[in-house]
Description:
Elements: H1 2-24, H2 30-42, H3 46-55, H4 62-78, H5 80-89, H6 94-102, H7 110-122, H8 129-145
Amino acid sequence: MKNAILCLALLFSVCLAPHRAAALTNTCTNAQDELASGKLGAARSLAEIFDIKKEFPGCAGGGLSEEISDAVVVRLAGHWNQSIVELYQRNADAVFVAFVLQHIDATTSEADLKQVIGHASSSCPVQSKAICGRVKEAAKAALSDL
């Protein structure tokens, strides 16, 4: 009986090992990096940017992470009304909000960060005051890190 249990345990661990290894080696090929970068350039919302990060998790470090940050801040700076509505509507999605706030960072343009701060200070819908405050603080922190 013990031998049967040991055989089953060994068989189970051997069968699962390749799946675990694949999950742990979440890498990004050059082709995937280029595809993710191209998709970022065409993204028309914060949600699309977030989806690209989820689609290419192995590519989310390094240069692509900076591209994601740039896309987030440019989106907020240039499409404030749409972006703040989107953030407000998805405010219950803590992962999405954290993603956006995390990517408001010092790898982005000083001019865009200042524009985001300006929008958050003067163009915030009443129902979005809390999320505007969080965006403004993230942009201020990024600006101070430049």
